[in-house]
Amino acid sequence: TIQRAPLPILGDDALRTVVIQPHRPLGPEQPQPPGVGVPEVLANPHPLVYRTLGALRRAKPDDQGILQPRSRSALDVSVSREAMNRAMRILDALIKALVEHGATVSSTGEGPLKTAAGIHGTFVYFSLKEEVLRRSPSGRLGLAFEHDSGASQRWIDGKDQRVEDCLSLFVEGV
Fold first, then answer.
1. Can you list the positions of beta strands (E) in 10-162?
2. What is the end-to-end Cα distance of the chain in Å, rounded?
3. Confidence of residue 36 (pLDDT cuts 50, 70, 90)
4. Environment class of residue 96 by beta-carbon count within 10 Å: exposed (0-12), middle (13-18) or buried (19+)?
5. Which residues pair with 3 in a beta bridge?
6. How high is the pLDDT of residue 31?
7. Is the pLDDT of residue 96 over 70?
8. pLDDT of residue 146 exceeding 60
9. Of the chain's two ends, which shows fewer C-beta atoms within 10 Å, N or C?
10. Contact 92, 45 (CB under 8 A)
11. Element (DSSP H or E) covering residue 85
12. What are φ and ψ of residue 99, in 5° steps?
């Protein structure tokens, strides 16, 4: 027989029962999650967005024309100067929606720059990056996340969707 170590005692009774349900894609018969609106103008940005915008404005583009903040208190974003305003408006709307749903959003202070959204003891790390085609910024943004369980997903601007249209799915997934 194999000896099994006892499970640790839980400090939170809400964690005693874990229910795993299959993912059901949203269809026309299912209600869509409430939309996360992205404003046309960035006004009263979240402090992380404000710091990131300042860091991007001070950044020098790399050889492919992409800016990355150097500040440890900035968000995980890599975009061209042309896509910077749109990216900041997307991140501002996303962070405000996450906070409204009870999440805390922060940047990692050590190691590679990561942006984390945490709720109920679990974390999702996310980034917003502009795709580079033929060594030039494409204008296409991609929002990616990785759950601390290892699950991940990515939404990319395409012919039929824009990252802005996927923010509510991201928020519901956290």
1. 77-78, 104-107, 115-119, 122-133, 136-147, 152-156
2. 40
3. confident
4. middle
5. none
6. 45
7. yes
8. yes
9. N
10. yes
11. helix 84-100
12. -65, -40
Cα-flanking dihedrals φ and ψ of residue 109, to 5°? -90, -20
Looking up tokens 């974003």 gives 77
Q: Which residues contact 55 (CB under 8 A, 6 or more apart)?
A: 69, 70, 71, 74
Angle separating helix axes 84-100 and 47-58, nearest 10 degrees: 160
Place of tokens 């799915």: 169
Amino acid at 154: R
| Residue 117 · residue 124 · CB < 8 Å | yes
The candidate with the shortest Cα–Cα distance to 38, out of 157, 173, 174, 148, is 157
22, pLDDT greater than 70:
no
Per residue in 68-84, is it b (16+ CB within 10 Å) or e — as a string?
bbeeeebbbbbbbeebb
Per-residue tokens: 115: 């942006």
Q: Look at the alpha carbons of 37, 158, 22, 125 in this order and tell me if their dihedral is positive or negative.
A: negative
Other Cβ atoms less than 10 A from the Cβ of 164: the count is: 20
CB count within 10 Å of CB 170 equals 22
What residues pair up with 125 in beta bridges, in sequence order? 116, 146
Q: β-pairing, 77-78 with 152-156?
A: unpaired
Cβ–Cβ contacts within 10 Å for residue 63, how many? 6
